[in-house]
Write a structure and sequence with these properties.
Radius of gyration: 21 Å
Number of domains: 2
Mean pLDDT: 96
Helix content: 25-40%
CATH topology of the largest domain: Rossmann fold
Shape: globular
Low-confidence stretches: none
Number of strands: 15
CATH architecture of the largest domain: 3-Layer(aba) Sandwich
Strand content: 15-25%
Distance between the termini: 22 Å
CATH class of the largest domain: Alpha Beta
CATH superfamily of the largest domain: NAD(P)-binding Rossmann-like Domain
Length: 370
């Protein structure tokens, strides 16, 4: 199969869809890997490293799309890429369709096969979302600590405090992968951490694995209202696969928060779980509303591209090999985890939550795989 890896052109996105090691694995199976010149540089991978494992190169993004049967990338295509996508071409990347009606309609129009990392599901887990969720969760605490500093507009409180001074109160909403990693980081820095979830079994697990300065509690609207009043850093990580994130902190709740409180919305790719969040970039990462700092960068892991690209390729490579070796249709027929990644195929919406988000017709993946 002819595989193309374009340079990411979303603003401030430094990751690349494949490492040289990943490219080598595909080439060793007899596939062609065509890399856009310079695509890996910001992630720390030179053209020479890709050339050493047998990759070919294209000088422009247009050429990469023209030659490829499968495109492997990181972020969803942006408007400049829409016209480059060909009918029947397989796109293997993050899409987060439910947060963008424009993207959804563009991919329907393209007649391409859109297989989304974030909805590939195996054993009730999301294996291609996990590595970036780990990175984003750890970064959420790191960025939150920075913006609590007074020169950044924050409260001027040190996350872990010092001898004789109380540490900061950190509230994490969502006990999944991102929330757990955010809690680990905050706890390690010495903060007083509360982590909320609606899954009692998960809360029991968190209680058994977390240090003493982390308190898992059941999440409901009243408890959230109470907790935000005393929290200095609030991290939202709630995810519903394929759907928009629920709005768990409402606009009117900002008035009850301490001025200079920091909100970090890890769920912003799925529309955000704070009502007042709006997408930002690494160049201009925060918005201040009602005296509350909002950090909602849509590609948080892009700030650490070497770590993120390596972790992502480690997770996606096995699935990419299945798609390349068998073709998307046979691979998805034989592997239900991959089939769940099919969101839009040749103009048809195959993921129920995406169809419901924009009132579109929905068909089951099995109807085109059998």
């Amino acid at each position: 199969m002819k595989i193309g890896v374009p340079k990411e052109i979303k603003p401030q996105e430094a990751r690349v869809g494949l490492t040289p090691a990943g490219a080598q694995a595909l080439i060793s199976e007899g596939h062609e890997v065509n890399i856009q010149t310079g695509a890996g540089l910001l992630s720390g991978f030179s053209d020479q490293e890709f050339e050493n494992v047998g990759c070919s190169f294209s000088g422009t993004i247009n050429e990469v799309y023209e030659k490829a049967e499968m495109i492997i990338k990181v972020k969803e295509p942006i408007a400049a890429e829409y016209e480059l996508i060909q009918p029947n071409q397989l796109l293997f990347t993050y899409f987060h369709f439910a947060s963008s009606e424009t993207l959804t309609h563009a991919m329907i129009k393209s007649k391409a096969v859109c297989l989304a990392y974030e909805t590939v599901e195996e054993n009730k887990a999301l294996p291609l979302l996990i590595p970036m969720s780990e990175v984003a969760g750890r970064m959420a605490t790191q960025e939150g600590a920075k913006y609590l500093e007074k020169p950044q507009g924050g409260l001027g409180i040190l996350l872990g405090g010092v001898s004789g001074v109380k540490p900061a109160n950190v509230l994490i909403i969502g006990g999944g992968v991102s929330g757990t990693e955010a809690a680990r980081m905050a706890a390690g820095l010495g903060a007083n951490v509360t982590i909320m979830d609606t899954n009692l079994n998960r809360l029991r697990e968190l209680e058994s694995i977390m240090p003493a300065n982390v308190t898992p509690i059941y999440s409901n609207s009243l408890t959230i209202e109470q907790e935000v009043k005393r929290s200095h850093l609030i991290i939202g990580t709630v995810l519903i696969p394929g759907s928009k994130a629920p709005k768990l902190i409402r606009k009117e709740m900002l008035k009850s928060m301490l001025p200079g409180t920091v909100l970090v919305d890890v769920a912003i790719d799925q529309g955000g779980c704070f009502e007042t969040s709006e997408p930002t970039t690494h160049d201009d990462p925060i918005v201040i509303k009602e005296g509350i700092i909002h950090y909602a960068v849509t590609n948080m892991p892009g700030a650490v591209p070497f770590t993120s690209t390596t972790a992502l390729t480690n997770a996606t490579l096995n699935y990419a090999l299945q798609l390349a070796n068998k073709g998307w249709k046979k691979a998805c027929f034989e592997n239900n985890a991959l089939a769940k990644g099919l969101n839009i195929v040749k103009g048809k919406v195959l993921y129920k939550e995406v169809a419901e988000a924009f009132n579109l017709d929905y068909i089951e993946a099995s109807s085109i795989l059998n």
